[in-house]
Amino acid sequence: MKCAIVGFLGCNMMKRSKSEPSTVRRFRLSHLLFGIAAVYLLFLGFKFQHFLELAALLSGDDSYVGLDGTTVGENEEVDLSKGFFGSAYKDTLHQEVEDEQNHNAPLMPKKEHQGEENGGARSIKPIQHKYGRITGEIMRQMNRTSDFSVLERMVDEAWTLGLKAWEEVEKFDVKDSEEDTMMEGKPESCPSWASASGNELAAGDRLMFIPCGLAAGSSITVVGTPHNAHQEYVPQLVKLRRGDGLVMVSQFMVELQGLRAVDGEDPPKILHLNPRLRGDWSQHPVIEHNTCYRMQWGTAQRCDGLPSKNDEDMLVDGYRRCEKWVRNDIVDPKESKTTSWFKRFIGREQKPEVTWPFPFVEGKLFILTLRAGVDGFHVHVGGRHLTSFPYRMGFTLQDATGLAIKGAVDVHSVYATALPTSHPSFSPQRVLEISDKWKAHPLPEVPIRLFIGVLSATNHFAERMAVRKTWMQSSVIKSSHVAVRFFVALNQRKEVNAVLKEEAAYFGDIVILPFLDRYELVVLKTIAICEFGVQNVTATYIMKCDDDTFVRVESVLKEIGGISHNKSLYMGNLNLLHRPLRNGKWAVTYEEWPEEVYPPYANGPGYIISSDIAKFVLELHVKRRLRLFKMEDVSMGMWVEQFNGTVPVQYSHNWKFCQYGCMVDYYTAHYQSPRQMICLWDKLGRGQAQCCNFR
């Protein structure tokens, strides 16, 4: 009866299931249990201690029991009031990184004051120690007595050229050069127009120099021909199951660029204009506008053939941001002849509407004119207005000293007219306010609570001046409880180095490191900050930040005060289990970094360490046992982890040490332009810890 109900097939399966020997089931279960046990034993043998350390770190507990039965960090206080570790996996535009091992660092002369003392300006001498120098002893230890790595050669060359550059600065008389006009307030003279043929532009890597930048009324005309579309493979389309991933692409870029700060960092883009003739793989043309500051892009403005709003607050000098052009996927509604006749009969005025095709065509000549207006840039093609892009705070027309044209386009000629004949802000005398109130106080002889080292580039006169006029005026700094110094390497141009030397002599807040500045060698400045904070001042804590970082010093001190002073401290916006990028522009090879993850590290724009960690870094450096990695924040995380192996460290995480931009009630705000710095300081003076997000 059961077989009749269940069915013949189900009955046979039931019989087979009952007749199956139980030993088979037990055999399979035993294999499964055996496999689990084997994996567990391997886990105990190789990863258990590391797992306990990570578990203790994640739980906020400073203690864990090691395999030898000892308890590490027992009875230590734990700070769980802050949201502990948080991932920051947005670092797709992170610094270019390479590995470097075993550098030596002789000690800095103790208590050597930089800048002005007793009202008189001292002659400025750079720090004389070769951070990162590779010695023969280290090379023998590495069994590489004859060959240097790329980074080792880079470090050696940077120091050799840097010392030579400083010798030239010592001999260089700024009063006999054109740079004298910078310090004396005489504006440099620039041509009112510039032009370049296609061949001249190609010879200059498709970059035309505009000496004094642009001004309202300036215009740039580009005559060119877009290339025919070419085929590209886009793996993202394959993942989305949109065909075989092959698309036809035709696009080019016209960019107004500022000056590059240091080698390895892209120059700021005051305007990025990107016509995409085939669109974003959609076959519908798109024009994208954007800005980029310190390699961080703003919000893009995209024009796709649909007109933008005609509201007054959306217009730029009376122009629409996006004009209309013909799209083959949209059919314009046509009114009937009857409706048209009736409107004419009653006398209603009719405005004829003309729709133009997309102005860029593959293989056909175009004439593009970019004009700087009062409120923004205006793009005309073939004499017709196409798009407008409002200026963004933090970017000035005078900074647009370069025109770059890239991509699939043949450029025939470029003309720039109505250019300013003098630069109102590019010269240091327009940026550096020569006033006693901005001078740094001498380094205190008594112990201080915090020393802040600010990484800066040679030609960042405006950034340094903005820091001096804003958060360096904090009461705790003026009362000498906190000291601040800029750490700057040398430029390839001796004139710029000479002005830097004068700036350092006058303001007394710059530490000059005599190696040529390179983006890959920022870690050497970090070591210099550690050494200065230990040798030249007696600071309980040392903070590292960048010259585009705005610091709420009182809030940082308050946050530090919440940690027991008996604990070693590593504070900032921390990353846990951050993996190296193995592909792309910022790829890190396994030879450079063999581990799968980085140690816990704080993001570079602003972090704090206790002085005992800084002393540990210097001790390893003196003993030539300090391992360096080209990503300076990862290097610090690596050193702290090594120190944590012998002395428990309190890792303190807070998102308010902002990695990207700013947030309400911030401790540090990053990627802030000089104008934003002034705005933040003004708001802070009104008791508002709010952002100035102009870009």
TrEMBL record:
Q: Where is the Galectin domain?
A: 206-417
Q: Where is this region: Disordered?
A: 101-122
| Keyword Cell inner membrane found | no
Q: Which cofactor does it need?
A: Mn(2+)
Q: How would you describe this protein's topology in the membrane? A: Single-pass type II membrane protein
Q: Which UniProt keywords apply?
A: Glycoprotein, Glycosyltransferase, Golgi apparatus, Manganese, Membrane, Signal-anchor, Transferase, Transmembrane, Transmembrane helix
The Gene Ontology terms for molecular function here are: carbohydrate binding; hydroxyproline O-galactosyltransferase activity
Q: Name one GO cellular component term.
A: Golgi membrane
BP term (GO), one: arabinogalactan protein metabolic process
**Top-rank taxon, per record:** Eukaryota
Q: In which pathway does it act?
A: Protein modification; protein glycosylation
Residues annotated as transmembrane: 29-46
Where is the protein localized?
A: Golgi apparatus membrane
Query: What's this chain's function?
Result: Possesses hydroxyproline O-galactosyltransferase activity. Transfers galactose from UDP-galactose to hydroxyproline residues in the arabinogalactan proteins (AGPs). Is specific for AGPs containing non-contiguous peptidyl hydroxyproline residues. Utilizes UDP-galactose solely as sugar donor. The addition of galactose onto the peptidyl hydroxyproline residues in AGP core proteins represents the first committed step in arabinogalactan polysaccharide addition. AGP glycans play essential roles in both vegetative and reproductive plant growth.
- Give the family this protein belongs to, as stated in its UniProt record: Belongs to the glycosyltransferase 31 family.
- The protein's name is Galactosyltransferase family protein isoform 1
Q: Which organism is it from?
A: Tripterygium wilfordii
Q: What is the lineage of its organism?
A: Eukaryota, Viridiplantae, Streptophyta, Embryophyta, Tracheophyta
